[in-house]
Specification:
An 8-stranded parallel β-sheet has the order 7-6-5-4-3-2-1-8. The chain is built from 13 helices and 8 strands. The protein starts with a helix and ends in a 12-residue tail after the last helix. The chain is α/β, with parallel strands linked by helices. The radius of gyration is 19 Å and the shape is globular. The protein has a single domain, classed as TIM Barrel. Helix 11 packs parallel to helix 12.
């Protein structure tokens, strides 16, 4: 189904602030207590030992290994890319991560360092992390990172516009950035920690998907709270509802604060229980990660040897 067809399934032909308000008012409210109870129950699920290694490998294949620091350098990007390609050089059976995620000016270095590896390059854009810039500047930045070789663009919505009820501005910016990305995949960051309620998270998720997001993403990682299980559940349920209405499969990326394999496992359980097998793939689900990878590598080493490696055994991200 094309994006135009998807729009027609959930929105009128002429999209305005009034029609978007009507559309979002029709979105059912979230039972916040029920969401918390649901994720608490799913968090108690145990994974059998024989399935755990496969789950750990899947976590790695789903990671966007990320560095978004003012101190980033071409050398740091090269090191990150090397780790993305071969997370543990002593174990070639461990898969590569899905992508490396960097600032726009670091994209050429990431592209050069990952060439031929299958690891994608993602770049934040649209004046990350605030998103507070003129739309012309946002479009220019999105086009720039794609021209530099980025396979994926992580944009941020204007949370102020959304909270003020200017839904058309948010919708139109996502739509125009999607067009500017061409063939590159667009991940739309909601910055859920600033949206205040789960009702707003659900509405923002549906708004972003209706505008053309390939993925919806929780957070920039610069605001607390970032990714949480209740927020992720609500976003996954919005993806399910959007798929039921349009047939379009949108991906999900929780980012920020997921540091251990135990935490990541809970996200995979919630994903599987909510959306099922078709979404259990890097093409449909990603972890925004900086420190998660080392913990997963430590867990793999424990499964294989019965001993934990020192955290210092692995390179720092």
């Amino acid at each position: 189904m094309t994006l135009a067809t998807a729009h027609a399934s959930v929105l009128p032909d002429r999209v305005t602030t009034a029609t978007l308000r009507s559309f979002l008012r029709s979105v059912p409210s979230v039972d916040e207590v029920g969401a918390a109870e649901r994720v608490a129950a799913l968090s108690t699920r145990s994974i059998k030992r024989e399935s755990k290694r496969a789950a750990l490998d899947l976590m790695i294949r789903m990671m966007d290994l990320t560095t978004l620091e003012g101190k980033d350098t071409p050398g740091r990007i090269a090191q990150l890319a090397a780790k993305a390609i071969r997370p543990d050089p002593t174990q070639p059976s461990i898969p590569s991560v899905a992508a490396v995620c960097v600032y726009p000016n670091m994209v050429p270095y990431a592209v050069g360092a990952t060439e031929g590896s299958g690891v994608r390059v993602a770049s934040v854009a649209t004046y990350f992390p605030s998103g507070l810039a003129d739309i012309r500047l946002k479009l220019e930045e999105a086009k720039m990172v794609v021209a530099a070789g980025a396979d994926e663009v992580d944009m941020v919505i204007d949370r102020g516009a959304f909270l003020a009820g200017d839904y058309f501005r948010v919708f139109d910016e996502v739509r125009r950035v999607k067009e500017a990305c061409g063939d590159a995949h667009l991940k739309v960051i909601l910055e859920t920690g600033e949206l205040a309620t789960l009702d707003n998270v659900r509405r923002a998720s549906l708004l972003a998907m209706a505008a053309g997001a390939d993925f919806i993403k929780t957070s920039t990682g610069k605001v607390t709270p970032a990714a949480t299980l209740p927020v992720t559940l609500v976003m996954l349920e919005a993806i399910r509802d959007f798929f039921d209405a349009t047939g379009v499969m949108v991906g999900m990326k929780p980012a920020g604060g997921i540091r251990t394999s135990k935490e990541a496992m809970r996200y995979l359980v919630v994903l599987n229980e909510t959306l099922g097998e078709p979404w259990m793939t890097p093409d449909r689900f990603r972890f925004g990660a900086s420190s998660l990878l080392n913990d997963v590598l430590m867990q793999i080493r424990w499964l294989e040897t019965g001993r934990y490696a020192s955290p210092d055994y692995f390179t720092k991200d």
